[in-house]
UniProtKB/TrEMBL annotation:
Pfam families the record matches: NAD_binding_8
Species assigned in the record: Penicillium alfredii
Xref: SUPFAM superfamilies: FAD/NAD(P)-binding domain
Record flagged with keyword Manganese: no
Upper classification of the organism: Eukaryota, Fungi, Dikarya, Ascomycota, Pezizomycotina
Name of this chain's protein: Glucose-methanol-choline oxidoreductase N-terminal domain-containing protein
InterPro entries given in the database record: FAD/NAD-bd_sf
């Protein structure tokens, strides 16, 4: 079921993608997860012009997100939480989907 949704979404995205010309960047890294940030940093340190794109808004001034001692508060702060997304649903034992 997940694979079918993924393939349908991929087909939809592939048909609606338009070319965008980025000037000035050699590499565009999408997502700053466990692999994206180190990859972008290493490319930049090697002298390549690198653009790192991340979803969400800037929470740099929100102390719940930036102060490590407040990490417990960050998990409850709506501004720091990952947005609810239909791609992150799972099926409960009762058979319903939870987002």
């Amino acid at each position: 079921m997940f694979l079918r949704r993924f393939l349908g979404l991929a087909a939809l995205l592939a048909s609606s993608v338009t070319a965008v010309e980025l000037t000035g960047y050699e590499y565009v890294v999408v997502g700053s997860g466990a692999g994206g940030s180190p990859l972008a940093a290493r490319l930049a340190l090697a002298g390549h012009k690198t653009l790192l794109i991340e979803a969400g808004d800037d929470q740099g001034k929100n102390t719940n997100c930036t102060v490590p001692a407040f990490s417990v508060k960050a998990s409850e702060d709506e501004r720091c939480r990952q947005a609810r997304d239909y791609k992150t649903t799972y099926e409960t034992p009762a058979g319903t989907e939870y987002t």
